[in-house]
Amino acid sequence: MSKFSKKKSGELPPVSTASLPDIVFMLLFFFMTVTVMKDSSLKVENVLPNANEIKKLEKKDRVIYIYVGKPTQEFQKVFGSEPKIQLNDKFANPSAVGDYILAERAKKSEDLQNVLTTSLKVDKNANMGLISDIKQELRKVNALKVNYTTYDGDAFRNLQ
Amino acid sequence: MSKRTNGQNVNAGSMADIAFLLLIFFLVTTSIETDVGINRMLPKLEKNPIIADVFERNILRVLIDSQGQLLVDDVLIELTDLRQKAIAFLDNGGFTYDHPAYCGYCKGERDPNSSDAPSKAIISLSNNRETSYEAYISVQYELLRAYGYLRNRAAQRLYQKDYATLESEYKDPTITIEEAERLKSKIKNIQELFPLKLTELETK
Fold first, then answer.
1. Number of folded domains that form chain B
2. pLDDT at B2 (0 to 100)
3. Cβ of A122 and B133 within 8 Å?
4. Which one, A22, A70, B48, B164, has least CB within 10 Å?
């Protein structure tokens, strides 16, 4: 009997948590690499259309973003549910786009000012009238390089 | 001595908490954003608009109406057929054999009522104010793919490579300057064979 009583009672050894930090760090690095810092919080719905065989945008410092879409739920009471333009953190009219581009361009260093791209992040349900207005404004300030930013996906899915 | 080698274990239990804190911070402050899209150049705004004389047969009119329906040269078609239609139009090569601008590399039907040569063919895209952005992008994209297909064909014939491969090789920072120059001239060459003449200006 004494032979058996030596054995420990049913207690399990504690699970080693030594590898937990490693796992969490791995997750952390994953998120650090695949995400980018938010520069402005979105106030519009922004579900982009799909397209594949697309070009990657250039370096981030050469891009000016313009968001278009329906105001999100919380802003709909004030701004209505028609698609709106968001520049930085504010809603704006199409006529303000030109000034915004000029102001953003002035912020960039001189050698970048000629190679700027305007990234249009437009919700897929927005209508083209607003986009045409924006394009006209962009032409007025000679910001001709645009990128219709999309998700990477099959374009035919857009029509379903 | 033995104490030194053994050392005391540092308690790593709080390490996980710190890492979690960092992780949550990054989750909150970042977002997964796309940075891909369709690159286009807008036309310059001219004070005195230049009026170009173009034969009607050299223009393919694509209109997207407010319901997202497609009218190509006043015929209603499906989006899935648009690419084929655009390729047929661009690749037509309607000039006769003895014409100086005869398109030797075109494989189209050589219909005299369609475009004369790829360098002359213009696709005119227009839309309604009520057209949805989604439909517009789909059409824009299908048309660009038609150009892509033809450019790929030319690149395969001349250099046994896809056009996209040439472009990505050109952008590769590790290539030598001579190599870059050669690739650049190849890309230029193909772009001249099938120039991107996709306009959203008014055509009458």
1. 1
2. 47
3. yes
4. B48
Token representation of residue B201: 């200006």
- Taking contacts as CB-CB distances below 8 angstroms, the residues of chain B near A38 are 29-31
For residue A91, the distance in angstroms to the closest alpha carbon of chain B comes to 19
Q: What's the predicted TM-score (pTM) here?
A: 0.75
ipTM, two decimals = 0.71
Query: Do A87 and A100 meet the contact criterion of CB atoms below 8 Å apart?
Result: yes
Segment B23-78, tens digit of pLDDT: 888 888 776 666 778 888 888 777 776 777 777 788 888 888 888 788 888 888 88
Of B26, B44, B133, the CB nearest to A144: B44
User: A78 to chain B, minimum CA–CA distance in Å?
Assistant: 23
| Domain extent for B172 | 56-199
Q: Is B64 helix (H, G, I), strand (E, B) or coil?
A: strand
Mutating which of A41, A134, A148 best tests the B interface, going by the most B Cβ atoms within 10 A? A148
- Which of A48, A120, A138 comes nearest B34 by C-beta? A48
Per the domain annotation, does B103 fall within a domain? yes
CA A73, B32, A47: angle at the middle one, nearest 5? 40
DSSP codes, A67-131: EEEPBPHHHHHHH-SS-EEEETTEEE-GGGHHHHHHHHHHHS-GGGTTS-EEEEEE-TTSBHHHH
The alpha carbon of residue A138 is apart from the nearest alpha carbon of chain B, in Å, by 8
Task: Give the contacts of A62 (CB within 8 A, at least 6 positions apart).
Answer: A108, A112, A115, A116, A117
Q: Where are the alpha helices (DSSP H) in B131-176?
A: 133-159, 163-171
Residue B146 one-letter amino acid: A
Residue A7 has a pLDDT of 55
Q: Domains in chain A, start-ordered, CATH in brackets? A: 50-159 (3.30.420.270)
B190 domain-assigned: yes
For A:127-156, CB contacts with B below 8 A are: 127-129, 131-132, 135, 138-140, 142-152, 155-156
